[in-house]
Specification:
By secondary structure, the protein is mostly helical. Helices cover 76% and strands 0% of the residues.
């Protein structure tokens, strides 16, 4: 386990992660994911096999990587959760189908870092409930 980062180190890494999100292809992937509303685990399997596979994988692997940095102590969890919410949004969209998707793809570790970060923090759990309410309202439209 890494020693806990200093506030300055955490801030620096968070800013570097933010810069990565601004890369052109990542912006396109994030924009696509924002409009992706799966209704089943099969929707997730289908997207992995379709034309948006790279976007889906880019967004989910980016947030799982960022969550791993937090979970291992490289970034302070409270500071990360204060500065970010997109990982919660990603998890909220996928959580209902995650167990079935993991089984279908043979990868029980898929998005495990994001899951650990979101479910291990009272602040992130509060965000998660709010995001789920917003997503349900968006799905009704």
């Amino acid at each position: 386990m890494l020693p806990m980062s200093t506030p300055y180190e955490s801030a620096d890494l968070i800013l570097r992660l933010y810069e990565m999100r601004r890369e052109d292809t990542m912006r396109k992937a994030r924009a696509w994911f924002g409009g992706f509303f799966p209704q089943s685990a099969q929707d997730l399997v289908s997207v992995i096999q379709g034309e948006h596979s790279a976007y889906f994988r880019m967004v989910t692997s980016y947030w799982d990587m960022a969550a791993a940095l937090v979970n291992r102590g490289a970034i302070d969890a409270a500071m990360f959760n204060d500065a970010n919410g997109e990982h919660v949004f990603i998890f909220a969209k996928l959580q209902p189908y995650l167990a079935e998707y993991r089984t279908a793809m043979g990868s029980q570790a898929y998005l495990a870092q994001v899951e650990q970060l979101v479910t291990g923090s009272p602040e992130a759990l509060t965000k998660l409930e709010g995001v789920k309410r917003r997503l349900a309202a968006m799905a009704k439209k």
